């Protein structure tokens, strides 16, 4: 523990943001990092609790050893801090940017609403390590002669690939898109995480021996049978891409879209990638009244993207009641609480409607969207008669989550069993599917989740594969 009285002396301080009026003019990251002196003070606030809930089961899913690296930052031993952080997390610069930080909710200092700024410190350790040139390829000194195929280069596939290559397996990643990263690249916008962070990890992994094969849609361009014949083990890490369909009257109107095509297009545009020539028209929010249906991360990313494209107004509809500003600590701590949260995108000027159900979408005679018919809902989420209202809209994004992985293609072709929700069936112990050579991890197994959970599952599935191939494994679980 760095400073015994640190938490009494220093207030919580996170990295700040550029002003909303400035940051909506560009798509770049907009956080303003703390300097080394302030970071040391923040790290000094860690109390090194007897039971550090932050890295226990209710906190960080990859079990980052938070009190240890807080102490190392306080001691200015940044090189040891990144070594420690990398021992549990392959990509701390990803989680330091986009993780919702369940660790901070579980921090003992959060009982006083002043948790240690864990996520800010994690990002600072990772960024400094890259800037100092401490992050280097770590190729295996020996080769096992075993070959592993990984389908999907999202956070789960990347974490698994890195772990498996580092213990000497020949790892091939098959990815449908032209570049690696999954939702980190094509879902999450640059203003939350710039893609250069993925590109340099891909370079590191290539130097560690991982071979990436882009534009290969497994189950369509390459049958699953070919993979199971060519490789000793196959990991399905294809994400959960099937959007939940709200089945609204008027969904076919011109101007109504699922969130993902919109975000994918914007990410491609920002990344100067060519648009696929499938006849898809550009979706741009400039000079439009935009309504986003849904209250999660995907919805927020549509909000921030629409503002950056010059939307006239952005309104977000959430069917849930407005949550309390503060949770009752004694009933929920150290678990993730329901409370009023405002994302940086919402803070850029979104109108938020709570307890609002979408009854349908209205259009003109030419089939163009004109508005969204809504109503307030009761505690059972049923519309209350007489509370209907119409929001004028030129663009609607449906962002109410994802139901399951895509079944057509790889999943159907492989014949693996599915769970009740339609995800690939595999447990969290060995990640084996019903096919003896196929494993599954990340959103494809777990259902839509978080980057940090995908990293955890990729690491754990790698350990299981390594154990099955070699009879034992030095990889951590
Ligand atoms: C818009 C949006 C914003 C989000 N924001 C956050 C956030 O801020 N913080 C957070 O923690 N989480 C966030 N999430 C959730 C997070 O992105 C996911 O939980 C995480 O990306 C899952 O990782 P994954 O590797 O399992 O799958 P994915 O990232 O979905 O990657 C799957 C990859 O598999 C590829 N693939 C699929 N099928 C095939 C096939 N047959 N052949 C070849 N390749 C295939 C896909 O192209 C994709 O690259 C967000 C999700 C969305 C949609
Ligand atoms: S990965 Fe997420 S939960 Fe874990 S320490 Fe980082 S911010 Fe906290």
Automatic annotation (TrEMBL):
Mind listing the GO molecular function terms for this protein?
glutamate synthase (NADH) activity; glutamate synthase (NADPH) activity; iron-sulfur cluster binding; oxidoreductase activity, acting on the CH-NH2 group of donors, NAD or NADP as acceptor
User: Where do the Dihydroprymidine dehydrogenase domain residues begin and end?
Assistant: 24-133
* GO terms (BP aspect): glutamate biosynthetic process
Q: What pathway is this protein said to act in by its record?
A: Amino-acid biosynthesis
Query: Which segments constitute the FAD/NAD(P)-binding domain?
Result: 147-458
Alphabetical list of InterPro entries matching this protein: DPD_II, FAD/NAD-bd_sf, FAD/NAD-binding_dom, Glut_synth_ssu1, Glutamate_Synthase, Helical_ferredxn
Per the UniProt record, one Pfam family is Fer4_20
Q: Where is the signal peptide?
A: none
Gene3D superfamilies the record matches: Alpha-helical ferredoxin (1.10.1060.10), FAD/NAD(P)-binding domain (3.50.50.60), NAD(P)-binding Rossmann-like Domain (3.40.50.720)
User: According to the UniProt entry, what is the EC number of this protein?
Assistant: 1.4.1.13, 1.4.1.14
Keywords on this record? Amino-acid biosynthesis, Glutamate biosynthesis, Oxidoreductase
What are the transmembrane regions?
A: none
State the name under which the record lists this protein. Answer: Dihydropyrimidine dehydrogenase subunit A
User: Which organism does this sequence originate in?
Assistant: Methylobacterium brachythecii
Lineage of the species this protein comes from:
Bacteria, Pseudomonadati, Pseudomonadota, Alphaproteobacteria, Hyphomicrobiales
């Amino acid at each position: 523990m760095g400073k015994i009285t640190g938490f009494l002396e220093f207030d919580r301080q996170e990295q700040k943001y550029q002003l909303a009026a400035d940051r909506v003019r560009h798509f770049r990251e907009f956080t303003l990092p703390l300097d080394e002196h302030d970071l040391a003070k923040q790290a000094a606030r860690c109390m090194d609790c007897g039971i550090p809930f932050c890295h226990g089961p209710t906190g960080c899913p990859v079990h980052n050893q938070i009190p240890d690296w807080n102490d190392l930052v306080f001691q200015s031993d940044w090189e040891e801090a990144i070594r420690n952080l990398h021992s549990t997390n392959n990509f701390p610069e990803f989680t330091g940017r986009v993780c919702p930080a369940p660790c901070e909710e579980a921090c003992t200092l959060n009982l006083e609403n002043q948790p240690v700024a864990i996520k800010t410190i994690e990002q600072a350790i990772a960024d400094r390590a890259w800037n100092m040139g401490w992050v280097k390829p770590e190729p295996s000194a020996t080769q096992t002669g075993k070959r592993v195929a990984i389908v999907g280069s999202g956070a789960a596939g990347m974490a698994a690939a890195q772990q498996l290559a580092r213990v000497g397996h020949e790892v091939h990643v098959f990815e449908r898109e032209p570049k690696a990263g999954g939702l980190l690249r094509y879902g999450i916008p640059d203003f939350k995480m710039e893609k250069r962070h993925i590109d340099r990890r891909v370079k590191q992994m290539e130097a560690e021996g991982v071979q990436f094969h882009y534009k290969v849609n497994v189950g369509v361009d390459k049958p699953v049978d070919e993979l199971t014949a060519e490789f000793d083990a196959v990991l399905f890490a294809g994400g959960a891409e099937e959007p939940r369909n709200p089945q609204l009257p008027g969904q076919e109107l011109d101007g109504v879209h699922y969130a993902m095509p919109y975000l994918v297009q914007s990410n491609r545009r920002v990344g100067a990638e060519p648009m696929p020539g499938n006849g898809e028209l550009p979706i741009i929010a400039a000079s439009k009244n935009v309504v986003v249906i849904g209250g999660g991360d995907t919805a927020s990313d549509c909000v921030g993207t629409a503002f950056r494209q010059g939307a006239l107004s952005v309104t977000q509809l959430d069917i849930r009641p407005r949550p309390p500003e503060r949770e009752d600590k004694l009933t929920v701590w150290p678990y993730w609480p329901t409370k009023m949260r405002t994302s940086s995108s919402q803070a850029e000027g979104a109108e938020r409607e709570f307890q609002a159900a979408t009854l349908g979408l209205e259009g003109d005679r030419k089939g163009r969207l004109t508005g969204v018919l809504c109503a307030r809902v009761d505690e059972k989420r049923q519309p209350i008669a007489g509370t209907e209202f119409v929001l004028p809209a030129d663009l609607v994004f449906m962002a109410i989550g994802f139901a399951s992985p895509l079944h057509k293609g790889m999943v159907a072709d492989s014949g693996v069993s599915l769970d009740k929700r339609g995800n690939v069936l595999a447990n969290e112990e060995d990640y084996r599917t019903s096919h003896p050579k196929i494993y599954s991890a990340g959103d494809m197994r777990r259902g839509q989740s978080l980057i940090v959970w995908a990293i955890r599952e990729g690491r754990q599935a790698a350990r299981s594969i390594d154990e099955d191939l070699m009879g034992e494994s030095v990889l951590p679980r």
